[in-house]
User: Fold this.
Amino acid sequence: MRPTGPTLTAHVIAAALLHAAVVVGMVTGLAAGARAETLVVAAVETPKGFDGDALKPATQNVVTQVYEGLTKYAYKKDEQGRTVIDGSRVVPHLAESWTVSEDGRTYVFKLRRGVRSPFGNELTAEDVVWGWEKSFAQKRTGNFIARVSSVAKVDAVSRYEVKFTLEAPSLIFLRALTLYTPGIYDSTEMKKHATPADPWALKWLEGHTAGFGAYHLESLRAGEAAVFVANPNYFKGKPFFDRVVYREVPSAASRVTLLKAGQVQWTEALTLKQVVDLRKDPRVKVESDEATGHASVRMNARYAPFDDVRVRRALLYAADYDALNEAVFEGLGTQARSIVPPIIEGHDGSAWTYKTDVAKAKRLLAESGHPDGIDLTLEYSDIFWWEEPLAIQLKGQLGRAGIRAQLKRITSSEMRSRTAPGKRDLPFFTFQDNPIVLDPVYALFINAHAEGASNRNDYRNLEFDRLVDLARVEQDRDRRNDLVRRAQRLHVEDATWVMTLYPGAHEAMARCIEGYVWQPDYHERWAELRCRK
Amino acid sequence: MTIRRFLIRRLVLAAPLLVGVALLTFMLVRVGGQDPVGLLAGPTADAAEIAAIRADLGLDRPVWEQFGIYLARVVRGDLGASWLSNRPVLDDIVDRLPVTLELLLAGVGAGALVGVLVGLHAAFHPGGRFDHVSRVVSLVGFSIPTYWLGLVAIFVCFYLLGWAPAPLGRIDIALSPPPRVTGSYVIDALVALDLRAARSAMAHLALPAAVLAIIAAAPVVKQTRAIALAALSSDFVRHARASGLGTGAIRRMVLRNSVTPIVTFIGSELISLFGTSSLIELVFAWGGLGQYGLNAILSGDFTAVQGYVLSIALFSLLVFAVVDLLVAVCEPRAGLT
Assistant:
């Protein structure tokens, strides 16, 4: 008798079909999984904190991906057709629009609706107020930004309207709002982690983020990696990379090797020698921009012999800028002629006349009472890769004019602390500052005003300060640019900086990466990157 | 002396030693010109903000007072918080020590094994081709800078030949680390029966451990050879030879008499390579205590540096205690002191 149930063959076929379905399902699942794109960044170190008000190593690199501003710089195409920042134009970002009062002291921003954090909370005026109050209370980086942009008060007018009251009109203000600090936090989430002793949830912020930007921190393994994932509610839509692994690779040589081998798609902190090598590698793409960082050697006029302007000028004439560019910056640098970088509107390098002239340097030295030359100590650290090679080259160049420079390497923390406000006791040293706001008054103020945070050589000139103070509140563009030009001229004439070169910003990435645009904080925006395979 | 008395004695002796190390480190980091305040304050801080941070860290107090506070905390098991990450230093050390030990024990273990075998073979055939080659190779091992050897190993084994995985830490980026039991990914993955993770962890360990093994083996070869040669030319071996003992028996005698100095030497190697391994960790992005200590030193993170040095001191004491125990086992006449 034949069995009435399914035959063995039918069982086998059914099992095979089921198996095939499972396999197909698995493959489909895998394919779906494979669509998740990961960007691996070879970083110098994992962030030591995620609070934009208290910058620690690598903090800035990542908070710029999490906290976005009410405004942003417009983009434009340069002569080569590359997309670049238009520092002269600021456009709405988390804000939809704004109005400004006639006296230029009150701004009301209308917030974009439907902007949500990864926690699902919608951006409101309260979030903006909370972030600014946090900065005011902490009195750190955000507070400095508030101070230079003259912000006195921030109030919520309605759920979607926020009002900024300025102490004085400021052209820096709208540019300052492009920054990640004072940050716009998801205050609903932040408040959950606040305590009476820690009202700004700073403890929680050591290992978490809560912004309205494109990414947020998923996990942190200190010393290994910080993993970021895309904000599923990001108002500009899903970025190309769903995940970013910010991997600590402390050795620069290893970072380069990993990039060449395709194991990482982005590297940080390369030397120009590595940049030149990588430019020849077909598997790697290198993007270069003039940027704002200025490799300088600074003299503190409070210390002899730098109290004599003739000695300072002698140093400027003795330096050979072309040779420095070739020997230290691989020929990639741009000659610096002002403390306002050329990419910032208002830059004027016309006052700079210190073309290399050893005979003139010797003459100036003799006039200043040093006919037999002079002995100096040049202190440098390893904060910037170029410091030591530049110091070595400069020593040789100065020697030709009878300026005998002894080189002294100090630690990076010593360099930072001894050039910080309140101390500033290094007579002759190397440093690089990058004005983070693309505004000439900001650059002048931070680098050389008596109250400037980066006035590391303690430059004091009352007339310079007066011009900068006037420019800070001047609303007329031409008059402001005139003040800015006069301040630059004064600074160059006082010759307290051996302005060497702008080394430029050079980023190396996997060949497939597109969408990179240089930012004034020198940190790429992961949300703008994509990989064209 | 019984083992218990020996351990108690060591513990008692360790206390003043650790206080001394703590004091020395505390003072050295402070007179070394390091000042993390500038770094912590950021580029925009003014004098008042810097003073506030200084006061917050207690740096405005007299150094002796600072040390007193620090020591009182250390005694309670609190090594303070890292000035940069704010994480408790003890947590960082507990997290990272096993990571370094995994690399150190694998590297020095392999290096010592190879070094002893090669050294003994060279000593038993002095003046032969093997002896000459081993001496040259060990000299090369001595002379190569650790950092450079690491970079070359990566370039050849990962970049050119593709034998080793990317020098991106201890496990493949796509894999999740195994649940923490010991802190060693290899052991933890095996405990969790996660063979994929175990394979990846072992593959990642192989190259840095091999580099460390090369660095470790060179002095062990030289030392073992010298120790064994000294034993071979001693009176008791001459007597044994004269008494007609065979080569095998003589070699066993030499081995037995060489064990004590060799074990002692390997112990001191283990301690000295604890510091050296930080360079290998740096090149391979290993993420252990060495990398942590190096970072802390470079950035002037005083509490982290102090914790790092204290843990090295503690590790050294532990290794010496273990070595003394091993010596007592191998050479009962020496006893425990």
Observations:
- The first helix of chain A runs from residue 8 to 34.
